[in-house]
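Dear H.,

Thanks for agreeing to be a second pair of eyes. The structure we're designing against is below in token form, covering all 263 positions.
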């Protein structure tokens, strides 16, 4: 394997995020560099109308391991992520918002727990401590309760918790389709039926330091309605008929140079 190739590609959707990315992206890249992980950060400029693209290119010019991928027009969060996946080069692929709500060091720990496995699992965070208002907390509890009622074996009590990291071969088999906010639940539901294990790590989720969240009341309605329609509609059953099963052997072969050195 070429040691110049990335070990991990992270898709980071950025939509009108000029206020936050100058702070969150350097800290994210620096945390992986400090840990000795070869990171490729694929920043998805999802149809931004502000200086997001300009700032991303400036960070790239400073030497950060950033690939800027413009998606236009903006057809939703999921569409931006789906159109950015093909740009990723690493065997492990993750998705993380650019808001910096999860500490980069925690994301590094999550990947370190995955990189020496057979690849047949999803690493994700559970936002155990969340700096949200009471209304959003109540909505989150009700939403995850509904997910558990519809899919009791999913292996997560924070389905939308990000980042998520998975092997590219698992991602290929999931054949994700959701162009809007349902991408995270679709990923978790399909992974469950594919037999992929879930490694969920508790983290502290802080408030945004800058910029505005793009989650609205309509987003919550979309989540709830899509959960019901996906559970009782035909999309999931049709995917299960054509889904390629996981191979018997490991997806990820651990090479000697990847093993941690003795301390």
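And this is the sequence the design step returned. I haven't edited it by hand at all.
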């Amino acid at each position: 394997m070429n040691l110049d190739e990335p070990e991990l590609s992270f898709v980071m959707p950025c939509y009108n995020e000029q206020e936050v990315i100058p702070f969150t992206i350097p800290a994210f890249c620096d945390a992986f560099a400090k840990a000795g992980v070869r990171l490729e950060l694929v920043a998805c400029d999802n149809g931004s109308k502000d200086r997001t693209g300009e700032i991303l290119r400036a960070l790239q010019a400073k030497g950060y391991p950033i690939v800027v991928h413009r998606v236009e027009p903006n057809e939703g969060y999921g569409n931006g992520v789906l159109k950015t996946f093909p740009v990723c080069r690493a065997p492990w692929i993750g998705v993380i918002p650019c808001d910096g709500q999860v500490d980069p060091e925690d994301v590094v720990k999550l990947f370190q727990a995955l990189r020496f496995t057979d690849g047949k699992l999803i690493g994700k965070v559970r936002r155990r401590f969340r700096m949200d208002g009471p209304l959003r907390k109540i909505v989150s509890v009700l939403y995850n309760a509904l997910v558990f009622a519809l899919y009791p074996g999913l292996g997560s009590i924070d389905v939308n918790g990000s980042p998520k990291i998975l092997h590219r071969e698992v991602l290929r088999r999931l054949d994700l389709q959701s162009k809007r906010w349902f991408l995270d639940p679709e990923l978790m539901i399909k992974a469950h039926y594919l037999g992929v294990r879930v490694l969920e790590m508790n983290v502290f989720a802080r408030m945004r330091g800058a910029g505005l969240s793009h989650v609205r009341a309509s987003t919550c309605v979309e989540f709830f309605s899509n959960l019901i329609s996906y559970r009782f509609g035909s999309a999931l059953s049709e995917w299960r008929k054509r889904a390629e099963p996981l191979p018997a052997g490991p997806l990820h072969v651990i090479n000697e140079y990847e093993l941690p050195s003795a301390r």
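Two observations from my side: The two ends are 25 Å apart (CA to CA). The longest strand covers residues 121-130.

Warmly,
E.
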